[in-house]
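Next up, sample data:
>
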Amino acid sequence: MSIYSKTGDDGYTSLLNGERVPKDDLRIETLGNLDELTSYLGFVKAQIKDDAIKKEIENIQIKIKTILSEIADGKSDKWHISENDVFDIERLIDAYQRMIKIKNSFVIPGKNEISALLDVARTITRRTERSLISVDKKYPVNINSKMYINRLSDYLFVLARHMEIRMEIEEKVTDIIKKHYRKNGIGIKLNLSVAKKLMEKVEKKAESMDLSVAIAIVDMHGNLIAAHFMDGTLLESMNLAINKAYTSVALKMATHELSKLTQPSQPLYGINTTDSRIVVFGGGCPIKYQGEIVGGIGVSGGTVEQDVELSIYGADVFEEVIS
């Protein structure tokens, strides 16, 4: 069966009761407004995460379809909105009003996406109400249907204001949580995807220096996330790069700084004999985010000075990579 019937090519269409009317008939215009309204409410519903509010809007869509059927059939006794339906939406309005403070002034829509969409739906509801009243003058409409559409615009208004406040609170809470986690070195994860991007940056830097090096990235606990060596890099350079990255996290300092402290008569002299993974020459750096260590990078394959330069570069570009 084809979706197009060709029966409307002459500018006429059929109502639910079979009556053929011009497409500019006031009832057809009102049906179009009701259809637009329930479709837009579907768009709003799809953007909202709260299941209870989704259910409220879905129930409203069902009631609008009932009003649409009433207009299309011309029988309010077959398709009708009840007094209880009106009471239900009034109870929702009252509930939202208790949660918010309505200012006695014009509202400028657009504080957030959800509230803006609700305000658009509200204006469509107002237009629908106007056309419904025009229809009622010639084709009487159930009083409860008219009351329901009137209350619907009020419902959408208070829900929009509620979502403005709710979204503002959610944003503030989310911001506080993010700041807390960042302060404690949580939240920002040095994962495989980030490690790959970071190693790519360091590799390009090494190429510009005409070097072939091994690069290793570990997490804040010293666990290896990723390791990579460029063509022509010595095999042992990989082990060194991994251990340099581990050392920088284990001792919370760059290995070229550690080197100074492991000289004879210095406080960490001989520390490399206590753990075979400790490397006491340059090329390893802690990776920090807002002052907190989130991992480490190790580079090996060039001179000590070159390895130091590349490891510092890698640590420095971390925030650029995650941004």
The chain has a mean pLDDT of 88.
